[in-house]
Design brief:
The chain is mainly α. The chain contains four helices and no strands. The mean pLDDT is 90.
């Protein structure tokens, strides 16, 4: 689960995330990525465990071996956008 999911979606849309992607629903892909990460690590994602780049690195390190590098790279992009949202509150 993602805390502030609606705010996150609004934030990435407002900041043009995915606007140049060929996939029409790329912003929703970011939500999907975060939900997948949450399930894989067995924790909700919130400002308590995802608030800076160190948190992003810690979480993505936990994903190694669970998913391929391309998937982890996608997850990392979504995680970084969540951090930006938290830092811009």
């Amino acid at each position: 689960m993602i805390n502030n999911e609606r705010k996150y979606l609004e934030f990435i849309e407002r900041n043009g995330v995915g606007k140049n992607d060929s996939v029409a629903s790329s912003t929703k892909s970011y939500i999907s990525y975060l939900n997948t990460v949450s399930k894989l690590i067995g924790e909700d994602l919130s400002e308590k465990n995802l608030y800076n780049e160190n948190c992003v690195n810690e979480i993505t390190n936990r994903l190694k071996g669970l998913r391929n590098e391309k998937s982890i790279s996608n997850y990392k992009s979504a995680l970084r956008q969540y951090v930006k949202m938290i830092q811009n509150k």
